[in-house]
């Protein structure tokens, strides 16, 4: 049976602040935003343009423990890798939209890459791969 990742949960401070960043600054689609009354939370899913499988679930921190993880889900390492078919188009658009880059673009053997911060401080790689490796 084939499998794939469907959602990756990103712990955020605030739903609307996160939506404004992912949709407004990165150009992601708002796939779903539904209130869950039984749990008093929202189910908020966003997706990069053209994505066919994995999306992000924006999960608002609801405890001190969760709040302590906002913006540092991986202990200071790059958390997510956003692949693109046009690095300079997206890099320039993100810069124009106020996205903070903490490592400027460089060319590596695997592609062109720069590191940016999301609204909560998680590090992301923006990558245009030289060769796309299919899983499996």
Automatic annotation (TrEMBL):
Domain of life according to the entry: Bacteria
Pfam families membership: Glyoxalase
InterPro entries listed in its UniProt record: Glyas_Bleomycin-R_OHBP_Dase, Glyas_Fos-R_dOase_dom, VOC_core
- According to the entry, every stretch annotated as the VOC domain falls at 4-129
PANTHER family, sorted? GLYOXALASE/BLEOMYCIN RESISTANCE PROTEIN/DIOXYGENASE, GLYOXALASE_BLEOMYCIN RESISTANCE PROTEIN_DIOXYGENASE
> What is this protein identified as?
Glyoxalase
């Amino acid at each position: 049976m084939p499998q794939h990742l469907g959602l990756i949960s990103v712990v955020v401070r605030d739903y609307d602040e996160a939506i404004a960043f992912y949709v407004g600054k990165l150009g992601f689609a708002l796939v779903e935003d539904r209130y869950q009354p039984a749990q008093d939370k929202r189910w908020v899913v966003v997706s990069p343009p053209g994505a066919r499988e994995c999306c992000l679930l924006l999960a608002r921190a609801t405890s001190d423990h969760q709040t302590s993880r906002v913006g540092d889900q991986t202990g200071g390492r790059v958390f997510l890798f956003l692949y693109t078919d046009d690095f300079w188009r997206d890099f320039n658009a993100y810069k124009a939209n106020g996205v903070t880059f903490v490592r400027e673009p460089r060319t590596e053997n695997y592609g062109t890459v720069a590191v940016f911060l999301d609204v909560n401080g998680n590090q992301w790689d923006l990558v245009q791969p030289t060769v796309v490796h299919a899983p499996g």
